[in-house]
Amino acid sequence: MRSRWTILAVLFVARAAMAFQFQSVGAVVPLVRDNLGASLADIGILIGLYLAPGIALALPGATIGRRYGDKTTVLAGLLMMLAGEMLMTASTSWSLQIGGRLVAGTGGVLLNVLMTKMVADWFAGREIATAMATYINSWPAGIAIALLLLPAIGTTFGMTGVGIAVSVLIVVAIGLTAFVYRSPGVAPAGGVERLGISAGTAYALVAAGLIWCLYNVGFAMVFSFGPSMLVERGWSTSAAGSTISVVLWLATLSVPFGGILTDRTRRVGAVLVAGCVGFALLMLLLSRGGAVLPLTFAMGIVCGLPAGAIMSLPTRVLDLRTRSIGMGVFYTVYYAGMLAAPAIGGKLAVWTGTATAALDLGAAALLLCPLLLWSFHRISYLRRRCSELI
């Protein structure tokens, strides 16, 4: 019998393949510009299109998974990712690039929604925060690997080589999912999965989704506008980018540590609040001209701590019967916010004439998380009281 940690490793690889594909455009921007004759604005659109299907498909994706099975739907998503990548590799036509990116992103939405639910199925009540922290760490890991490998591959073999590299990793994920993954084999308590959730549960999931969204907004502001802020202060582009990347590398360590800390102490709220507030204060210090290197190191150590605690929140209001539809609600809120926030941050930076405004936006988003956590707990408490009265 395969252990739940083996299953987690399979899901980690599959989601890392998704992150690798997402970053495959951003990692080789000069090559994309030369091959497609695209502007930076065009490339920005191409990057963002990968997440665009999430708003429309997160909730239907959960329904599809419930009808056809998690494993089958995830395999279909991986095949869509592969098809989209092959479409982009086959031609330099801009319309095919757009189409391929949307097809691949649609497959990625299915993975994101369903595999989070699959992790919960295996770990609910047992090291759930550690498992979620490990699982979501696949995203920065996949991006980091893409940044390391794809520029060299693209320089040597061109965009075709980049497409082949992405396709190979997706094929590996398909093989592992098909031949290693299995369901936990536990029937939902009380019967088959339910087609809907209560209003109280939906409100709690919206609150949890907003917390996850705002936390990621804080992250996005650092990586999207942090380098520009340092360039404004006279740093070179390469030095600014490599310095801000320290946060990402340290986050790959602090995210699982935060999950372990949450499980060991069982203080979900304390870890979440301390991590978000600490992250926000460090961002404000950085945007106000503090010592850059110490602050980026401290930010990398602190920023990952709340991740596992946040991702464990949906499992506290969902059971096996409602996890599919519940995670669909959670991710719909997340995708909607994540599409809007970077654009708002960019407009703020243009309006104020400095990238520090975007970092201030990220800090404000993080400081809202404790308030939303209070709302989540309050809604969860009222939901339990109502169920007891019924």
Architecture overview:
This protein is an all-alpha fold and 390 residues long. It folds into two domains: 4-179, Growth Hormone, Chain: A; 199-389, MFS general substrate transporter like domains (Growth Hormone, Chain: A). 83% of the residues lie in helices and 0% in strands. The protein has 15 helices and no strands. The longest helix is centred in the middle third of the chain and has 42 residues, at 138-179. The protein is globular, with a radius of gyration of 20 Å. The two termini are 40 Å apart.
Low-confidence stretches: 188-192
Structural class by sheet pairing and helices: mainly alpha
For this structure, the quaternary state is single chain
What's the level 1 CATH class of the largest domain? Mainly Alpha
What descriptive keywords fit this protein?
single chain; about 400 residues; mainly alpha; Growth Hormone, Chain: A; 2 domains; about 85% helix; globular
Topology:
Blueprint: H1 4-26, H2 29-36, H3 40-48, H4 53-68, H5 70-90, H6 94-123, H7 128-136, H8 138-179, H9 199-232, H10 237-265, H11 268-287, H12 292-303, H13 305-312, H14 323-352, H15 356-389
Describe the structure concisely for a colleague.
The chain is mostly helical. It has 15 helices and no strands.
